[in-house]
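Standup notes
- DV: blocked on the single-chain target, sequence here:
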Amino acid sequence: MKLCKTCFSSPWPFVLMTVIATITGFVTWLTLGLSNPEPELRIAVGLLVFVAVEVTLFHYVVTCMRRHCRHHAPKIDHHHRLSPGS
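- DV (later): unblocked, structure below
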């Protein structure tokens, strides 16, 4: 995985996705508490939701950062024009 050091120097996108995954896992844990399952099951499902959301958001953030990175964009020669026949 080739990552641009300039784009990936800020930890905020990764902190934010961890906060979102934590809140989602916690809300899942609280919701399962309403149906009285075993405590181990509540914890396991909460952790599973946390991991699933964290992995999904990590993939999304890295993909977006790569797509919008302007530091490694190919240089375009504006003086070179292609002829219509080529």
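- Follow-up: Residues 39-67 form the longest helix (29 residues).
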